[in-house]
Amino acid sequence: MPDFQNLPSKLPAGKTSIFSVMSGLARKHKAIDLSQGFPNFETDNHLKELVCKAMKDGYNQYPPMNGIPELREQIVSKIENLYGKKYEEASEIIFTAGATQALYCAISAFVHPGDEVIVFKPAYDSYEPDIKLAGGKPVLIELKGKDFKIDWQEVEDRITSKTRMIVINTPHNPTGTVLSKSDMQQLEKLLKSTNIILLSDEVYEHLIYDDEQHQSASKFPGLAERAIVCASFGKTFHNTGWKMGYCVAPEVLMKEIIKFHQATVFCVNHPMQRAFAEYLKNPEHYLSLGNFYQQKRDKFLELMQGSKFKGTPSKGTYFQVMDYSEITDEHDVDFAKRLITEHGLATIPVSVFHKDGKDHKQLRFCFAKTDETLEKAAEILHKL
């Protein structure tokens, strides 16, 4: 028998994702699940019918590696209409197995051993492992205050000759904050005259509230010329299990990303590409999402009034961070697990996203749920 117990690990500190842990506990205890970021309502029946039609029409074999021309055309047109940036359909866009694969390919393509990558904490939990797998060093900068702002002077101070990439995420998971026009202009000024690549995770671009506008890296010429922008169909159209995403980037960057895409998955779901190409012809399918999810956010916050949970309304995403310090001084991971086992409600502890696991006594709630689910969850939370 071979002995694999002592094989060196490429991710020795790697642990099971907190999303898997909390969702697993939620299933075991039959808890209401406001933890992992997915809706508990169905995607549009029309979109599902378009997928079925594409299958019946015979689109069941490999599509072109970087995606079918019809869908590339729709995405390029959408970005130009919303953000004023024209990407080349043939060479500056690729469809991926979810935005997570786009992030992985972007980091793998450009980060070499010894390179530094600036990541803002709290952060989505795939950035750092991807950087480490590429041999790079994550340079972690904590967002400041209860409104999670970036200190751009600190960013400037942390840039070195080894800085290969900066990763931003707006709207931001897990905090629900957004980067302003001023933020993006400061970043644009900071990166001018450098060769630093910007990786912009914009999977919640259409989930933005209170008359705010999404400030895509594509809108700013000094950023667009160096930016890899990642997006998600799953987050946008309530079908995260379909694992469909894409990224856009200048051709000089995209040609390297495509090499890694080819080596990992080569291409992604053909009938779904056909369906999205048709579905996106009606812009209202994504332009109406901000209002739809703002109603969900407002419903959840209204239900939480009078409880001991406190929070600033989310500006984007379908997550709401709430402070529970008036209830207990337990570590957030322990409190989140107890909420499941004793009260039947699953959330996500925010410390897992922070630098060094710093605990601010906050939980993240996903409000992409039916009103009935939100009402049942609030009833539980009011009893604490």
What does this protein structure show overall?
- The chain has helices at 18-28, 45-56, 69-83, 98-110, 127-133, 152-158, 181-191, 221-224, 233-236, 251-264, 270-279, 284-287, 289-304, 332-343, 371-382, and strands at residues 32-33, 93-96, 116-121, 137-142, 163-169, 197-201, 227-232, 245-248, 319-323, 345-346, 348-349, 362-366.
- With 384 residues, it is α/β, with parallel strands linked by helices.
- The chain has 2 domains: 18-37 and 287-382, Aspartate Aminotransferase, domain 1 (Alpha-Beta Complex), CATH 3.90.1150; 45-281, 3-Layer(aba) Sandwich (Aspartate Aminotransferase, domain 2).
- It has a 7-stranded mixed sheet, sandwiched between helices. It has a 3-stranded antiparallel sheet with strand order 9-12-11.
- The longest helix is centred in the C-terminal third of the chain and has 16 residues, at 289-304.
- The model has no long low-confidence stretch (mean pLDDT 96).
Topology of helices and strands:
Elements: H1 18-28, E1 32-33, H2 45-56, H3 69-83, E2 93-96, H4 98-110, E3 116-121, H5 127-133, E4 137-142, H6 152-158, E5 163-169, H7 181-191, E6 197-201, H8 221-224, E7 227-232, H9 233-236, E8 245-248, H10 251-264, H11 270-279, H12 284-287, H13 289-304, E9 319-323, H14 332-343, E10 345-346, E11 348-349, E12 362-366, H15 371-382
Parallel strand pairs: 1-10, 3-4, 3-5, 5-6, 6-7
Antiparallel strand pairs: 2-8, 7-8, 9-12, 11-12
GO molecular function: kynurenine-oxoglutarate transaminase activity; pyridoxal phosphate binding
InterPro entries: Aminotransferase_I/II_large (IPR004839), Kynurenine-oxoglutarate_AT (IPR051326), PyrdxlP-dep_Trfase (IPR015424), PyrdxlP-dep_Trfase_major (IPR015421), PyrdxlP-dep_Trfase_small (IPR015422)
Organism: Salegentibacter mishustinae
